[in-house]
Amino acid sequence: MSDTPQGATAPEVILYSTAICPYCVAAKNFLKSKGRDWTEVRIDLDPAEREKMIARAKRTSVPQIFVGEVHVGGYDDMIALHRAGKLDALLAGETA
After folding, report:
1. Residues in domain Glutaredoxin (predicted)?
2. Which site in 7, 62, 71, 92 is 20 to 30 Å from 14, CA atoms measured?
3. What is the pLDDT of residue 4?
4. Helices (H) and strands (E) in the chain, counts
């Protein structure tokens, strides 16, 4: 029952970041270790994207990570979700 529906793909991972952000690097390294691709949105290069991130995440810090439409939060939030055993299911597109 926990399998992704037939024909469904894993949700897109969006990572809002800046050039000088050690937690952004850590988040990307962690996602890479999980074998996941992501779309990086550099808010330091595009003020409109920064505003979009703030409106979507209700936070101003980076990274802000989204898996599909689910706001995971920052790096620490993602690691806490991983330690709670809930990140893999989210990355696989499974719903709770």
Report:
1. 13-72
2. 7
3. 44
4. 4, 4
